[in-house]
Structure formats: C-alpha cells, structure tokens
Amino acid sequence: MNHIISYSLLIGGLVLLLINTSSAQTLDTLFAEYTNQPITIDGQLSESQWEQAQIATDFWQYFPFDTSISKLNTEMRVMYDEEFIYFGAIMYNIDQERSYITPSLRRDFRGEANDGITVVIDPFLDNTNAFQFGVNPFGVQREGLLSNGGLTGTDLDLSWDNIWYSAATQQEGYWTAEMAIPLKTIRFKENSSAFNVKFYRIDSKYTERSSWPRSPRQFSIITLAFMNRLIFAKPLHKEGGNLAIIPYTLGRYASDKTEVPTTTDRTFQVGGDAKIGIGPSLNLDLTVNPDFSQVEVDQQVTNLDRFEIFFPERRQFFLENADLFSSFGNERLRPFFSRRIGVARDESTGQNVQNPIYYGARLSGKLNNNWRLGLLNMQTASDKSINQPTTNFTVAAVQRKVFSRSNVGLIAINKLPFENSAILDTTGNLFDSNRVLGADFNLASKDNTWNGKMFYHRSFSPDKEKQGGAAVAQIRYGTASWDAFATLQLVEDTYTPEVGFARRTGYQRVASTVLRLFYPSSKIVNNFGIGLDFDVLYSPVFNRVTDWDVNLLYNLKFQNTAELNVRLRREYIYLFDAFDPTNTEGLELAAETDYTINRMVVDYQTDFRKPLFFTLGSIVGEYYNGNRINLEGSLGYRFQPYGALSLDLAYNRIRLPEPYNDGNLVLVGPRLDLTFTKNLFWTTFVQYNNQIDNLNINSRFQWRFRPVSDLFIVYTDNYFPDDFVNKNRALVVKLTYWLNI
Fold first, then answer.
1. Is 593 exposed, middle or buried (0-12, 13-18, 19+ CB in 10 A)?
2. How far is Cα 360 from Cα 288, in angstroms, rounded to an integer?
3. Eight-class DSSP state of 83
4. Which band of pLDDT confidence, cut at 50, 70 and 90, is reported for residue 240?
5. Pick from 138, 146, 130: which is nearest to 230 by CA?
C-alpha cells in the first residue's frame, strides 16, 4: 500500500508540473498620475487633480452573472505623491434615492450583505499575495491580507490592521469614496513602476457584485489570477525609514474559586510591539511580554469528535505574512500552527491555559519578485503548576515562485524546552525537543483552472516513536460547469508535529469530489449542482480500512444570495480506541468495533441582506449504535448602522441503547454587538454549554481614539449553570498606542 501511494504521489507531482501551462489573461492598464498638490480625504473628489486622472470603468458583473458589463456604473481613479497612493471612486445607482446596507459601523466588515468598494494591490506582480483596502457608504474601513492566490474566502485575513485614511459621502443617485494608502503601509520593491490591481464593488440592493477586471464566478471574487496593471508615471520611492512602536499597558484583576482557597491575581503589566521596515519589502516584528486579552473569544462548539478541533489564529502579532508559515501543509496537516505558542495544556484538567510569552521576533516579506523569507523566534515561560518548561520556538521558511503563479517552499521548525528548567515530564525524563522539516509545491495555474499541492514533512525527536513523515498530493479542477477535487495522503503514526496541527496520524487516505454545475434561466435560482464525494482511510497499523464515507451532493444557490446544501451520506467507522460518542464521560464503546451508518445533512442560509436573517443546519440519522438528531444555526437581527443582535444555537439529541449514555447537548450563544460610532464598540457574548457544564460571559468595550490605537475593557466570567455559582472571573483594562517614528 505504501508503494502504491508513493508512486501515486510521484505521478501526481508530474501531473501538477505538466498542467501548469494554462493560458494567461490579457491585462488592461490604468495609469496613476503623480500630483504635487495635497488631496484632502473627505470623500468628495473635489480636487481638480481628479478631473485629470484616468478612469477605470466598465466593471464586469461577477454575480448574478459574469458575461456582461455591470448594470451599475462604477468609476475608479488613482493618483499618488511621495507619501500616499490615492484612490477615488464613484459608485452610481439606478435609483436616485436609496438606502445602503451595513451590518454595523464596526471595522472589517465582510460578506455579501454589504455595500462597498474594495481595492486589491499586488505590489510584486506575483498574483499570489496582496493587500486589500475597502470602504462602505458609511465610511467604515476594512483592510486585510490576501494569500495563496486568493483561492477561497478563507485566504483573506481581515485581522491585520495598519494605518491608512478614507472617507465616503452619499449623494443623490451615487456615493463616493476616497482612500489614501501610505507607501509605508505596504511592502513593495524600491523603484517599482507598476502594481497589479483589482477593484470590486458589492451592491446589496441589486444583488450585484462586479469587478475590474472580469473575474469568472466559479472562482472567489478575491482570486488574484485575474488582475489588471497599475502603471505609475515615475517609479515609487519610500522616503525615510519605516518604524512603528506599539506599547501597551494593562491592569488585570482575576479570581479563581475552583482553587481551595480562592486565588486572586492583581496585575499591572507593560509590554509592546515594534514594526521595523528592513529595506522596502521586509518587515521585522518584535514583541516583548505580549498580551492578547483583547482578542475576540473563540466561538465554542459541541465536541462529538474523536480528534482535536481546529480554532483559527486571531492574535495580531502572528498575522502579517502569516501565510509564509501557515500555508505549509493543508487543513488537516499543518507542520506549524501558531496557536501552539503561548498556549499550554493542563493535563490534569484537559484544558488549554495561557502560557506567557517573554519575547518574540519575526522577519518576513519579499527578498525580490521571486523569493519570500520568514524567520520566527519566540520564548515562552515555564509553569511548574502544569509541568510546563520554558520553551524556545524557532521557525524558518523560504518560498520561491515558479512558473506563473506557483511556488515551492521549505520550512524548518524547532521546539526546544530548556533542560535547565528542571521540569520533568510524567516519566521523570527531561522534555525532548521536537523538529519538523518540510517541502511543499503549490500549484496555481495562470487562469486558475488548476490548483493543487504536493508536500512531504518529517518530524524528528530523540524519542524514536515521534519520528515520522507525512506525504500528500492533491489537485483541483474548476470551471463554470465542473468542480473536481482529488487527494492522496500518507501519514505515519509516528509523525509528531508538536508545533503543528495533525488531526490524526497513522493512515493512508484517498478522497475525491466531483460536482456538476447548472445555470438555469430563472429569476429565482442562480445555479445548482449535483455531485458525488467519497473518502477512504486505511490504517497500516491495523491493516484494514478504518473509515470510509460516500456522499450524494446537491447544492442550490438563489438569485437573492440564499443557499441550500443537501448531503446523503453512508459512513463506516472502525474504533481503534474505546470512545464515548456523547463525550459526557459515559460508558465507552469498545475498541475494535465497527459501525455502518446512514444520515442526511442539510444546510440553509437565508438572504443576509434582510434585517432578520438566519442559518440552519441539521444532521439526522444513525449514530454509531444509536441515532442522532442535530439542529444548529444562528438567528440575527440587524438594526443598522448601530449593531446587531444574534443567537447561536446547537442541539444534539443522541439516543444509544443501554447501558450507554444518552445525550441532550445544548450550546446557546446570544451576542449583542453595538457600534455607537466608527470608533466606539461594545460586544457581549454569552455561551452556555452543558457538555462542559459551563456558562461563559465575555464583554468587550473598545475605543479607537486614533488610528490603530485603542482602549479595551474586557470582562470575563464563568459559572456552573445549574446553581449559577461562579468559577472564575477577570477584568482587564488595556491601552495600546501606535506611534510612527
């Protein structure tokens, strides 16, 4: 079996190389005029320079169709001086009077239920990485980083923050926007004379999304395969250095009543970050005694899985150029996962706890048009109460562009506990180091029809039981009518990426999905798809297939943006370990037993443009030796532009034969999000989870008193829900200030 998959990986790699010959798009160009006169960012486009600027117009529809010019005319102009690139946009309407939609006044809006204009900038012309800046008719900003060619919506990270300026005004029959992007904010090669750009507009009333240049609707609108060229009248130059200091100070009060006696913590803490430009294209990020208490709390899930659940990174320090490290591997197999740093596991409770970070340094960015470099080093503190030694984490990654949009990369990861910490593991031995080396090839054809990945990673440790490898080859073919995906994986049971994420190990996997899409002539249905999906896992250790599933797929997308997905699933599971299907510490199903089950999975989301909207998902059918009814979704109401009230709900009714536990698992999460102004926010999120017997309250106040400078007040409480007895609580007041030097 190993030889079969090894040969398959080799053949897959050759295929990836051969198919990277798709034709490229024809670029249109837009000229940016240089100006010596200041431009006031007031959203008016009243300066005379705008009248002389070249106009990008004739935006193409992306949705509901992609074969015609947009019904709504949009004009984009670009100018620049020694400090800024300026974008001026006019968005015309069909109606002279109309209202616009925004979920709130909170920064970094996203989704189809928004009006907005967005600028995508690719300074290195690589169609792989880019900056995104957008504004809506209410003047709310959003900025983010695009990676991996913008293949999917998950390749846009809106957690990245930086300084730039914008304004918008609503006029009769149109709205206008101005943006000023500091040259210091973006990375580019010195003396660059051209960028790749894309502009796209979302109009909620007419359910139209449009872009310049045209972007086929079978791909994400943010895909970087389809870009036009922005030409500067004279080469760009960065004046002076680029240095930002971001200190913080905070006060924290915390109490823990689960300890006997009750413990309290009153802390005053200082620390901060620094961003230092190294040349025009590299950035050195430094952090000392970082704190992440203001980061939005994770949304809890009901855990019915045998394996670890993945939660995304939200901490600001780890975000810029994060794809240099996180793009290695795939969604199930990441050699590096930044949330392993600064988070430790308390083995006595099974819970993750914060592990203080002493310092961190990261050098990342472009060496030239073809090479990218990432270096990361961080040191965490020891915690004898949970048997955690002080640990150094080092990561080095390099990426080389090949062909038109593809790349090859190498990564090395080193986790080194300090032996002189005198902290021993449960066997009485000093903690071992852990290393991972890996090589990835990422395919992205010129026209985005073919995408894929091939990689091999290997872990190293003094413990031979933690030395193993993981190899993967996967390919995707996408057109307007077909979406096909296939993957081959081989993961040894000794593969141990301690600073990564491996959902499971010790298997060989073959999986594929084929979906046929149809576009009827209808005022109600935009498109629908019918497909087949299968997934098979084989265990060399048990010398047998341990998991397989076959799915019949039906997807339906409406013209009003609502969606319906139905999946009929037949599944086989072999339990190689004993397992409680309710995860409620009941009697476990015996190891080395197997189950074949049938179930139906349905997901539906309404038109999010309406003030009242909801999503609903359900799984109904057999569940191991019993049955399960699952209902989960969210209900939201938008009272724009000042916020939204929402309710997340998950219910699982599990019925198993005696003597196994039944389960009625409930997770309820009401959330109130108020945006009093574009700079003043308050969010309260309550989560009741009877699976872990906890009621959590997280309330966060944020005042952005100047660009990227904030005052946070964060209150967190945890209770036993039956008697409302407090477990622990914390109050944090934190002040951050962004200082450009």
1. middle
2. 7
3. S
4. low
5. 130
Residue 52: enclosing H or E segment and its boundaries? helix 49-52
Q: 167 is written with which tokens?
A: 């304004």
Q: Side chain identity at 90, as an amino acid letter?
A: I
Question: In 690-737, which ranges are continuous DSSP H helix?
Answer: none
User: Which residue shows structure tokens 């800046």?
Assistant: 133
The model carries a pTM of 0.90
pLDDT in tens, 520-548: 999 999 999 999 999 999 999 999 999 99
C-alpha to C-alpha distance for 333 and 336, rounded to whole angstroms: 9
Two tokens, residue 471: 């190899």
Phi (first) and psi of residue 14, to 5 degrees: -65, -40
Which residues, other chains included, contact 240 with Cβ-Cβ below 8 Å and sequence gap of 6+? none
Q: 2 pLDDT exceeds 60? A: no
pLDDT tens for each residue of 82-121: 999 999 999 999 988 788 998 889 998 887 788 999 999 9
Give the chain's mean pLDDT.
Answer: 89
Residue 716: pLDDT above 60?
yes
β-bridge pairing 174-182 and 84-92: antiparallel
Q: Comparing C-alpha atoms, which of 705, 736, 733 is closest to residue 247? A: 736
10 Å Cβ neighbour count for 129?
Answer: 24
Which domains are seen in the chain, by residue range?
35-232 (2.60.40.1190)
Which single residue is written with the structure tokens 């959203």?
Answer: 43
Rounded-to-integer distance, Cα 126 and Cα 446, Å: 11
Q: Pick left, alpha or beta for residue 385 (phi over 0 → left; psi -120 to 50 → alpha; otherwise beta).
A: alpha
Measure the CA–CA gap between 741 and 720, rounded to whole angstroms. Answer: 49
Asked whether 85 and 165 are in contact (CB, 8 A), the reply is no
> What CA–CA distance (Å, rounded) separates 311 from 247?
27
Q: What 8-state DSSP symbol labels residue 313?
A: -
